Sequence to fold (397 residues):
Amino acid sequence: MTMRSPRRAALAALLALIVPVLTGCTGQTPVAATPPAGIRRPPATTAGALRHLVADGAPGAASLITRDGRFWGSRFSTAGAADLRTGRAMEQSDHFRAGSLTKPLIATVILQLVAERKLALRDTAAAHLPAGVPARWPATGKSDGSDLRKVTIRQLLAHTSGLFDYPRDPRLVRQLYGTGFAAHRYDTHTPVQLLRIALRHRPVAAPGARYSYANTNYLVLGLIIKRVTGHSYATEIRRRILVPAGLSHTSFPGTDPSLPKPHGRAYSLVGGRRVDATFLDPSRAGAAGAMVTTLGDLNRFLSALLSGEFLAPRQMAQLRNEKSTGGAYGLGLYATRLPCGVTVWGHSGDINGSYAEAAGTADGRHLVSYRVNIDTPARPEDGTAVLAAEFCPEHRP
Fold:
C-alpha cells in the first residue's frame, strides 16, 4: 500500500478550453487542440522505459510528464493494455488505486495541524487517539509489547515507531494477497480492527531506534486526524487539499469496491497467475493507502505540495527531513537519488492490481508520474528507469 491560489484557478479555467493530447508509445498522434502559443509538449522520453515495464510482466504502463509547471502541455505516454480482454490502451483520464501515495496527503494534513498548534510532533500517539481505540494490546501484559504511549507523531510520520506492519500478519497475507483473496476481496476492515492486529505483534524495533516502513503508522495518523478535527481523514483531505487545488479526480472510496469511470482493469498475481483485482473493498488500506486518483491529479498535488502551497516553510523543512531515517524517508515524502546524480522527491504506492509513483524536483515544477496495472513492477530498476529517462538529460532523446 506501500490519494486555491488565483494562479491555480486561472489554470483550471484554461484547462477547460484545451483538449489533452494523448500520445502513446506507438508514435501515433491523435487529433487534438493546439497548445497555447509558445508551449511545446515535452518529448516522450519515458516511452522506452514503459515498454520495458510491459516486457517484464506489467499488462499496461503509462506516464505523465509535466515541465515548468505547464500542466496544459503535459506529455502522456502509454504501453501495453489497460484491459487484456479488449486490448484497450491506458488513457490519461483513467482512475486507479494509488496505494501508499495516500501517505503524503495524510502527512500534509498532520503537518498543517502542527502549524495550527493542534498537535506537536513530540506528542505521543496515544494522547490523540479517539475514545475506545487501544493504545496497546492488553492481552499481552508485557512491557516489551507495542505501545502507542511510547510512540510520537514524528515517529509515525517517519516510520520509526517500530510498530508491526499489519498487512504482514500471516492471516491477512493469505486473505489480502494469497489464496484467500477471492473469498475475502470484499471484506470490510475498520481501522481499529487493523490496529488491533498490529498491536498483537511485538514491535520490530524500539520507538525511534530505526526506520521500518509500516502501514500501521499512517493508519494511526488517520485516527488522530479524526480525534483532533472531529472529521474523517477523507473529509479533511478534501477540505484542505483536494478542493483548494482543484483535484476533482481524486477520491477516498471508504468501503466502495468500484472505481470511477473511466478506468481499466487491475491484475494481481495470485499463485503465479493473473487475477482480475479491479474491484475490492479498499478499507483494507484506509488512511495508509485507499486513495483513487489519476496521473494528472498526482502531478498537480505534488507540484502544489513541493512548491509550498499547502505548508509553511518550517513544515516543508520537516516534510523533507530524512535525518531520523538515515536518508530513507522524510515525514511523508522520500528523496530518490537517480543514477545521474539528480534528486527528486515523491512517493510510490501499491495495492492489489495497481502500482504508481510520482516524483518531482524540489521546486515542484518538473514532475513525472507513472503507473502499471499490476501489484508491483517485476524489477524495481524498471521504475527507476522511468524517472531517469525524464530527469537525467543524458537519457533524453
Notes: The mean pLDDT is 90.
